[in-house]
């Protein structure tokens, strides 16, 4: 580490530099529109939900588990929130704790099945996620439900600080919390030992099972938070929304693990990864490219970014 | 204490008492139940029956993971329990539930504390080093220091505590064993009790006060070290007498079968050496001397910086050599890191043993492979249920015999051994020596890198002692004794021209 | 000026409660359908718009006393194919591919079914001017072109000929061509100076691409005053984009389909205009056309299902929360009873 | 193993029994339509593509890699086939080798990036898959392309043996080949060691890199075969076809690893898993349940099946 401080710093902040380079490039091409504060506030404000989903994923990922159900937790929570709020007129102060508890419960179920039956988390969460999708369709009668109280939208995207919708700050707050948890608490260390060396963790006295369970519950709660914010962002809930966030969130989680703290899933890396990808998409749209170019960029940038990061680090073998 | 795994009775009514301030040896053949007993103490396994009292107070079993510390128990497990990807500091504080504030880890203070601790034990480690980058010895030291620290911490809570070391020494060269013993004695003087597992009888005799011997999950007896001798213990462990005499056949003069020239690697510098057919060549040295690099480089496991190998008339470029080429040249390599490099634990014995002889097979006859494995297991006395078992279900010693069988079935002309008896009991050790000797008898040559001088005395025709990547001494014939090897290793001044 | 007036007139014509127009001559449906059966394969049972039509068809068939089933699926072409084979194997007379189960996705199965004597029809799939795709026996169409025109006319009328619109389409849907034609025709005829840009977002990518695309366009073109997602389900992703860009006051949304939640959004003020169709009416019309095919009547191409423009002014008529069958009057119910001769 | 032969056999064939139980259940409810040969031939024929995608996945999975791009390979190949055949009138005898080569090339790219840059295959194939989706949209102009020559359809679904479209037999043939490859060739053993004991394999002379590369190439080719059959089944290509198949294929691969050869990805387990899940969905359709029930079934059956399988095997820890 010591001897190659420069390379290491380059590796840590490589993605950040690439991001800045992209901003410079798009900025040079359309300085009047791309390089405006309003454009950036749009970029920052728009992907808060994706950031939160990604943050939710990295907790079980650190503990060595996949949570594929998080997207469906989002959708179910979003639907539940909309139904309770718009159809049944339950006040938001009740709805929010209720749906957070729902998220936690689902996390608990994921964890309990994975742990008690010793099944790979991939298949458990895939199954639970599909089941949740069924419930979402059921309770929402496959409809998009709108008419959510303006209060929720007010506190998600209408209110702004420095021009950026408040949802962005929620996401940043969560990133800070998770960063603190992973770096400065015993639980964070236990997560790490659980994920990378389950036996080792157990031998050093980590209650591996409980840690994994907690990770699932936390990701369930994060999914629920994302669901609430999603409802607030769109003012409605539709039964397929979350589905499309899953792969981008995984991409961001893995891409994020190449920077800031290379080799470990980390919240700031994830945040940078999300906004790096979003900036690219936004820039292409501002420049008027056709939409398929977004896919080319997204896929290409993802692969190139990890390739470059690996080149910088001397193609180190990573455990992850 | 009783514990059964499936059909295996790992512990059968074992009773054991440890006094404060004693070093208590725990001996037994591979698979006799030592690690299992320890894992029950740490809460890793739940016992079927049995009770535990600490300081006269009964403790409910199974102990929740992480609670053992509160009772003053600290462990160095057989595979150390370190996370390789994490830093020294992260490993050092892992599981330190008693002391750490769970809500806020003060990394700066912890790093300071770690520096002091490492300095105290005279370890040349930095808290931010990654464990994967450490040498095996440093890792072992780290694990021991961690456990010692925990026990000492515990003294602030009253009772002095128990330190449990499950085979900490195979990783350590002699000088560090001495250091470890010094640490143990210091702890002992402060009233800490120590449970010490080792297959090395001399170590046991040197450091313990009493020893308990396990055989097949039963406690055979407890012996006072002062009034016991080597033979008694060996007899108790193995259940029969074992001779550990030098057993080297005389070699007829012949041309070398393998000649290595100007071999350089990470540590090695321009080393040249050769072996003759039927010869067992020992390589040894202190940590970092580079002797253990030789088998790695010759087998293609790691590519050399420079060097050539002339094997039975063919020349191999060691900078380009891949394992497949080495196998094609009939070189066999039995690595030290069994769990990672020797066997695939999830796969069956058949799959593990037969992989090298499949070639490009396009129609595998599973029945034949199975029979061949059963045959191999019999020949190498691998104790197991059946060839379809997962390799993880074997004890370490049996795994090692399986690995040996896997390679020796190929009839190699050059056998490379790296710490071949690490963690292997006295009885199994003899069997392994027999098998190696057989390979020699068929005209092969053996290069064995090890830090166990006694082993070299027993089997080696010739020993090369390394220092800083170069050969510093060569011992042959009757000079190959434990004492002279040790002398060559530790005396810096002597210079010999090798070859 | 003429253009604006034309546009206003067109909007006005479609703002009231529509009249019933009989698509063909009356026939005795009950008698002729007695031993016939129809299987409806909706594009996706998970899309409420389509599911409601299929359900209503079933209820009508029950009233008329013949067998009607629907093939529950989730919009996966493999499932449509299973439905096709199910119909062919179980002796149905007509397979009705409803509202987007596109027969171009499985031409061989269409042929196979036809060879077994099952008639395959597409219902509510294309615009009037488009031929029946993939060799199906009949195609009952909707006046999508008019819907396109109405969306254009609305923006022209609202802005007084100063439309600067972003139009979102999905090229792979067969109705898109008609809708786009309608939009461009109306702009061409009524407001040649209006600006608009058409952006294609495939249906699979709606959830991931609409929002960033709209945001980008709003930045790139500060003068945009309308976003026209040609299918109103797209608005879920359009409205947050506008809100995040902070342009809720200057950029309006005009769209088509009459999906209930979008009608609710009109009430909330997030969407300005939505062109709707009455799902129950569609069910009547589609069933009518399918029965005529089996009863040797003149085939129906133009279903005569009317469109209605919904805005804040008439949104109260659809109920709260909105009901997809409200706001169109009920003259058609009696109208079809007469056509099918089910009045005692 | 020996002592518990019965449990072991129960574990091996558990899923098969559950499948048969489901058939019996649905059959009892609708004997006239569900329990007909024509219904089963429909089920067998129409899901051949999913079977092939699943078979494609288990090859890299055995070698320890994920191939998320396989669905997009399918889509791209399907689109390319349709365009070459229907638009450019290239004869099928040329088209087929061409698109198979395309699939192999994509596998090669996946493998090369994963191996050379030492990046996790999850992120590489996710990136490459997204990129391919962009290319598909581009070349197909986001349209459904129909008008594929009848010859292709003839040899995919029109021709039947015992009433089942020939595509089913292709899938079975591939299952046999892969079964043979995994069980009876040295390459199969090398794949296994590459996945489960990479270093051991390497030191035993397995060219681990080449094996992983080969696995990616094979899964690329399987994706291409699936793409050709998809085009033949539907007579057209649309830009979203593969998307629906990825998660079901993963589910089937993992579910399949609980039976026949428990603890290992295996072709017959995968085939059974696919048809188990599909039979359920089909039965629910025939019975006229609403679609959300399909999700409830799918998710519930997946989780229950692995739970039961684990219970039977005594909740053994699995490496996979
Ligand atoms: N997890 C387990 N599952 C099944 N059997 C086990 C397990 N752990 C240990 N055993 C069995 O218990 C017995 C005792 O094993 P143990 O590890 O305690 O031996 P040991 O004395 O530590 O041997 P060594 O000297 O090789 O370390 C062995 O027969 C082993 O097969
Ligand atoms: N997972 C397992 N399942 C079944 N049996 C096991 C398992 N793990 C270990 N064993 C059995 O437990 C016994 C002891 O295993 P263990 O690895 O503890 O041996 P050991 O005494 O430590 O051996 P060594 O000294 O060679 O390392 C072996 O006989 C082995 O067969
Ligand atoms: Mg042991
Ligand atoms: Mg052991």
From TrEMBL, chains A, D:
Entry-linked CDD domains: TM_PBP1_transp_AraH_like (cd06579)
Cellular localization per UniProt: Cell membrane
Record-linked InterPro entries: ABC_transp_permease
Superkingdom field: Bacteria
Transmembrane portions of the chain: 12-29, 90-109, 121-141, 161-182, 203-230, 242-260, 272-290, 296-314
Membrane topology: Multi-pass membrane protein
Keyword annotations from UniProtKB, A to Z: Cell inner membrane, Cell membrane, Membrane, Transmembrane, Transmembrane helix, Transport
Identification of the protein by name: ABC transporter permease
Native species: Sedimentitalea todarodis
Automatic annotation (TrEMBL), chain B:
Location of the ABC transporter domain: 2-241, 246-493
Key word Magnesium present: no
InterPro entries, per database record: AAA+_ATPase (IPR003593), ABC_carbohydrate_import_ATPase (IPR050107), ABC_transporter-like_ATP-bd (IPR003439), ABC_transporter-like_CS (IPR017871), P-loop_NTPase (IPR027417)
Alphabetized GO MF terms: ATP binding
Entries under Pfam families matching the protein: ABC_tran
Domain of life according to the entry: Bacteria
Swiss-Prot/TrEMBL keywords: ATP-binding, Nucleotide-binding, Repeat, Sugar transport, Transport
The protein's name in its UniProt record: Sugar ABC transporter ATP-binding protein
UniProt source species: Sedimentitalea todarodis
């Amino acid at each position: 580490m010591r001897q190659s401080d420069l390379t290491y710093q380059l590796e840590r902040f490589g993605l950040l530099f690439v991001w800045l380079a992209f901003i410079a490039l798009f900025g040079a091409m359309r300085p009047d529109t791309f390089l405006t504060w309003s454009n950036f506030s749009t970029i920052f404000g728009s992907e808060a939900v994706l950031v939160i989903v990604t943050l939710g994923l990295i907790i079980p990922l650190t503990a060595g588990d996949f949570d594929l159900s998080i997207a469906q937790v989002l959708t179910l929570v979003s639907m539940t929130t909309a139904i309770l709020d718009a159809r049944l007129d339950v006040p938001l102060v009740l709805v929010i704790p209720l749906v957070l508890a729902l998220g936690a419960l689902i996390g608990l179920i994921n964890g309990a099945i994975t742990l008690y039956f010793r099944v790979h988390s991939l298949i458990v969460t895939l199954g639970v996620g599909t089941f949740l999708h069924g419930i979402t369709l059921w309770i929402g009668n496959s409809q998009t439900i709108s008419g959510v109280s303006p209060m929720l939208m007010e506190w998600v995207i209408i209110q702004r600080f420095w021009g950026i919708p408040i949802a962005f700050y929620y996401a940043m707050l969560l990133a800070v919390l998770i960063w603190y948890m992973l770096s400065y608490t015993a639980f964070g260390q236990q997560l790490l030992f659980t994920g990378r060396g389950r036996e080792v963790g157990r031998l050093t006295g980590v209650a591996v099972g409980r840690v994994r369970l907690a990770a699932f519950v936390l990701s369930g709660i994060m999914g629920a938070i994302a669901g609430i914010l999603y409802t607030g962002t769109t003012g409605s809930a539709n039964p397929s929304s979350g589905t499309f966030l899953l792969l981008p969130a995984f991409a961001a989680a893995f891409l994020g693990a190449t920077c800031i703290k290379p080799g470990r899933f980390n919240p700031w890396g994830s945040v940078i990864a999300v906004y790096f990808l979003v900036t690219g998409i936004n820039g292409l749209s501002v420049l008027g490219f056709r939409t398929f170019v977004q896919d080319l960029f997204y896929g290409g940038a993802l692969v190139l970014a990890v390739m470059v990061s690996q080149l910088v680090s001397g193609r180190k073998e990573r455990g992850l | 204490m009783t514990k059964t795994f499936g059909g295996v009775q790992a512990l059968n009514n074992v009773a054991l008492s440890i006094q404060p301030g004693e070093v208590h040896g725990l001996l037994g053949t591979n698979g006799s139940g030592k690690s299992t007993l320890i894992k029950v103490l740490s809460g890793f396994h739940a016992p079927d029956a049995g009770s535990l009292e600490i300081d006269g107070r009964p403790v409910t079993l199974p102990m929740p993971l992480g609670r053992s510390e509160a009772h003053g128990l600290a462990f160095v497990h057989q595979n150390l329990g370190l996370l390789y990807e994490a830093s020294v500091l992260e490993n050092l504080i892992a599981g330190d539930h008693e002391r750490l504030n769970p809500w806020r880890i003060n990394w700066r203070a912890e790093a300071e504390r770690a520096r002091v601790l490492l300095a105290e034990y005279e370890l040349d480690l930095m808290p931010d080093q990654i464990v994967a980058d450490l040498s095996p010895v440093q890792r072992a030291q780290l694990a021991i220091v961690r456990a010692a620290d925990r026990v000492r911490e515990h003294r602030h809570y009253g009772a002095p505590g128990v330190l449990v070391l499950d085979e900490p020494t195979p990783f350590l060269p002699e000088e560090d064993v001495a250091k470890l013993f010094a640490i143990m004695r210091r702890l002992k003087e402060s009233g800490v009790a120590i449970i010490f597992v080792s297959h090395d009888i001399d170590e046991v005799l040197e450091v313990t006060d009493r020893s308990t011997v396990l055989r097949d999950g039963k406690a055979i007896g407890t012996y006072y070290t002062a009034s016991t001798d080597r033979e008694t213990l060996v007899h108790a462990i193995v259940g029969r007498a074992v001779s550990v005499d030098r057993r080297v056949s005389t070699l007829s003069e012949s041309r070398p079968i393998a000649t290595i020239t100007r071999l350089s690697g990470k540590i090695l510098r321009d080393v040249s050496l050769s072996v003759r057919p039927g010869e067992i060549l020992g390589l040894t040295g202190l940590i970092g001397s580079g002797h253990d690099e030789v088998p790695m480089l010759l087998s293609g496991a790691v590519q050399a910086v420079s060097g050539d190998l002339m094997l039975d008339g063919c020349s191999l470029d060691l900078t380009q050599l891949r394992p497949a080429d080495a196998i094609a040249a009939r070189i066999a390599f039995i690595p030290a890191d069994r769990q990672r490099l020797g066997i695939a634990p999830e796969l069956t014995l058949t799959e593990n043993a037969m992989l090298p002889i499949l070639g490009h097979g396009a129609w595998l006859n599973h029945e034949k492979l199975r029979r061949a494995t059963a045959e191999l297991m019999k020949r190498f006395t691998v104790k197991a249920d059946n060839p379809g078992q997962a390799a993880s279900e074997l004890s370490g010693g049996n795994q090692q015999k399986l690995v040996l069988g896997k390679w020796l079935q190929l009839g190699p002309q050059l056998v490379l051994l790296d710490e071949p008896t690490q963690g292997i009991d006295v009885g199994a050790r003899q069997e392994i020596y027999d098998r190696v000797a057989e390979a020699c008898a068929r005209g092969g040559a053996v290069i064995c890198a090890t830090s166990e001088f006694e082993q070299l005395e027993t089997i080696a025709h010739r020993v090369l002692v390394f220092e800083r990547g170069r050969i510093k001494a060569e011992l042959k014939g009757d000079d190959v004794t434990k004492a002279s090897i040790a002398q060559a290793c530790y005396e810096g001044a002597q210079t010999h021209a090798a070859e | 000026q003429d253009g604006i007036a034309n546009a206003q007139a067109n909007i006005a014509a479609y703002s009231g409660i529509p009249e019933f127009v009989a698509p063909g001559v009356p026939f005795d449906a009950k008698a002729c359908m007695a031993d016939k059966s129809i299987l409806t394969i909706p594009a996706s049972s998970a899309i409420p718009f389509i599911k409601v039509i299929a359900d209503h068809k079933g209820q009508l068939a029950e009233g008329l006393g013949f067998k009607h089933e629907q093939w529950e699926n989730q919009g996966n072409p493999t499932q449509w194919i299973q439905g096709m084979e199910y119909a062919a194997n179980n002796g149905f007379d007509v397979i009705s591919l409803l509202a987007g189960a596109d027969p171009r996705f499985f031409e061989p199965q269409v042929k196979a079914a036809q060879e077994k004597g099952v008639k395959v029809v597409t219902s509510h799939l294309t615009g009037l001017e488009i031929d029946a795709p993939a060799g199906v026996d009949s195609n009952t169409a909707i006046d999508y072109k008019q819907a396109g025109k109405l969306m254009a006319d609305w923006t022209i009328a609202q802005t007084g000929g100063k439309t600067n619109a972003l139009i979102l389409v999905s090229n792979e849907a067969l109705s898109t061509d008609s809708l786009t034609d309608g939009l461009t025709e109306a702009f061409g005829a009524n407001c040649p100076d209006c600006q608009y840009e058409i952006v294609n977002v495939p249906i699979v990518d709606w959830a991931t691409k609409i929002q960033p695309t709209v945001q980008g366009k709003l930045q790139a073109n500060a003068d945009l005053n309308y976003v026209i997602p040609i299918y109103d389900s797209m608005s879920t992703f359009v409205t947050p984009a506008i809100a995040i860009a902070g342009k809720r006051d200057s950029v309006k949304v005009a769209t088509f389909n009459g999906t209930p939640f979008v009608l609710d959004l009109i009430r909330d003020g997030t969407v300005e205009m939505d062109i709707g169709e009455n799902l129950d009416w569609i069910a009547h019309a589609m069933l009518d056309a399918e029965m005529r095919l089996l009863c040797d009547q003149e085939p129906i191409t133009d279903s005569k299902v009317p469109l209605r423009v919904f805005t804040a002014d008439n949104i109260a008529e659809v109920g709260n929360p909105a009901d997809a069958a409200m706001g169109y009057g009920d003259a058609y119910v009696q109208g079809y009873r007469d056509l099918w001769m089910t009045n005692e």
